[in-house]
Amino acid sequence: MRLAAFLLPLTLRGCALLVAALALLLPVQARAEGQVALYASPSTRAYLPGVGGSHDALLGPWRRLLQGRGHVFRELHSPEELAALKPQDVLVLPSTVALSAAERGALLRFRDIGGQLLTTWSTGARDVGGQWMGHGFLRELTGVDVTGEIEPTSNRRFLIPYGDTPVNREVPAGRRIWLGELAERPLALKGGVEAAAYLDWARTVLQPNSHSSAIVYDEGGARPGRRVVFGYAETAWSFQPGDFEALADQALRWLLRRPSVHLAAWPNGTRAAQLIEMDTEEGFANAIHFAELLEQIQASGTFYCLTSEVRKQADLVKRLARHHEIGFHGEVHYGFKDLPRDKQQRRLKRMLDEMRGALGAKGDWVAGVGRGFRAPTESYDETTEALLMALGLQHHTADPSRSADRLPVFAGSPDPARALVVLPRGQLDDLNYMDLKLTPAQVGAALVGEYEFNLRLGGLGLLSVHSQNFADTDQLLNRPTHSTLMTQAVEILTRHIGPRHQQAWIATGGAIADWWRQRQRARLDARMPDANTLELQVSVSGNAPVSGLTLLVGHRSANQAPRLQASAPPGGTGAAQLRRIDRFSSALVFPALPPGRHSLRLSFP
């Protein structure tokens, strides 16, 4: 029986007592100093029926979340009850659109004593009588401005959460979460630290900072407490309730200042991963300048090659292989989707044979070639992926619809060691940019904007360029003139990346897939023996170390990093490095963590 269903028949007082008892049984959820208060504003309750709304429709999702996730909470119904809150308490204002003068005063007093606030949608935008007052009170209360609304006709009605942030350790980076087309128009926010954006299905970013913020958080400054602002109303939760509840729960835990630690998506403390790849088809020689641009920033890319072209360009492919990964793009530029299994198998075998014939063999594999595949025209099906695994390929660079998240996924086997790692293309490619009729400068700005957005997102960026679209070729001199749209745009991107290379892990498809498998061999268990200590057990399975494993640790207060000590023989943990990332988080990085169990202890100020 689900916990929420079990709790429903109980009184509110009984719920709180039972949840408190259950919380004592969970070692990683030590008793928090504060409690959660859910404010049921009498002014908002009186206003909503007149416009066809329901206060319980806004409060209900929070009641279910708080009961189901084990939070000790109480409901408040008056300014007088607000006055009794303590600074360590967390106050939730669920789309509290109408507020009286007394309510506003009580909320500002709670802000002034350093209280912790979570507000959603149009807090205080109307007075006690329902008259429109604007979003000035939200700014006064939280320091966050409203810069606009997301119209019902807009295609930017997907909430895209950032991964590995202090307020989100659970929902994967870049997940598409549908907001619906409701009357409560989502608000675009400005202020604090971004934690989610409003974007279209393709997550289109056409220039730096062109997206609108959907969730922001902050701490300190003129307002000493922590605050989180959701720009959307609770009525949107019904579309993907699990994701919306997870985001709300994670925000509450941050506001309660509970110590947190979890496995980061990417190695060595990097914020995001970036694959820059070329579908190498016609204009094969254009790959040279593409490779040179990557080498200028000390980065490696992947060249997914048509093997019918490799047969003509073996020396060029060997030159590329010195610094980059060579992968497979089929034998001819024709898709695989819906073809009979035997035909797909014959084509893939011919692809392998052609590459082996051009480059030679290395044991049972092809000399100097990785085990990655990218289907021509992104046309493939489950049969294709099953055959890739059977033939020994290990990763597949796929289309944007392959995953709702912007992270790698496993396919074909429940065992990550045997599964195919799928790398979904979560951003526009050169064909998309060409269809938009943009200038080289505009495409360059879009590539820079996408790179910067992916750093915020903490996801996998995947830029795909076709060789025939990268540069014109002078047929007499047989060399690139570097005059095409994508050539100039990629040059703009690499100039931008140069000084910022260390913030993103720019790697080949094979390296990213290998890391994703390594990461699955690590397990983290945590317990809190007291309110200021976190004891960690990191287990590594298999026979080889995991290189660059990173744990992200949330600070209990801004700029107050925890202290690290190994509480058992190091066995590899002695080399762990605790690095501060920002005001709210530190990264615990293990250069090489060998198989076995490793114990560590973190103490929080």
Automatic annotation (TrEMBL):
InterPro entries: Class_I_gatase-like, Glyco_hydro/deAcase_b/a-brl, NODB_dom
Pfam family, one: Polysacc_deac_1
Ranges for domain NodB homology: 290-394
Keywords: Signal
UniProt signal peptide: 1-32
Protein name per the record: NodB homology domain-containing protein
Organism: Sphaerotilus microaerophilus
Source lineage: Bacteria, Pseudomonadati, Pseudomonadota, Betaproteobacteria, Burkholderiales
